[in-house]
Amino acid sequence: MNTILRTTLFSLIGATLLFSSCRKEGNNEKLDKNNNESSSELVPATTGSWWLMRADDNSVSKTTATGEDSTVNGGAYDYFEMKDTSTGYITPKFYAKNTDYYINLIDLSDGDGQYVAAIICTVDPKDGDTWTNTSQMEYSGMTVDLKTEGEVTEINGTLTLNGHTYTNVIHTRNILKGKVHNTPVWINCGELNMDIKPGVGILKSDLDVHILSFFQKQISNSLLDYHIEN
Asked: What is the reported pTM?
């Protein structure tokens, strides 16, 4: 994911010119971190709960709920660990609920812990709910603005994965955009689609990155099995 992001940013830098412009804060940047609470209604955080996910390259990861809270950048989050079943590499995962939104932390720094809080869904989702996520990062000495435009497109969906049918599935669509800081025009970078089952978690995600004619990449992850500890 981080390699894709860096390639994306490189393409953006090569495709834009510098002009004067202001960056508007997204809904995520307006949230008060002191309002973070458990996201267990969406992604159960009870100790011992786990999820097996398979990517389209057949790699498998296991995410486990630690049952612990973790404070990151002044906000409290449910702490999970995602382990690559082949390499044993562990990636920290963080989720929380904040007022009207469920959020997670995205690491834009290849493991250096430069996390950005991003909205993944509304707490009481309705068809047509929208939100924006915005952030900045440094790349090759330049400041790059990042934005996603999210929307709930379905709240009563049905999805069958590995012989199990899930109902009341929430589908979200996020348009990915980016630009060099102080440029006036956002460049479309692709989209991220997610299927979420409240009380189970993320069932499926499909990331489609395309930067003009420079770069294209698709990544899919789907739930193989899970266990929710009561």
From this structure: 0.86
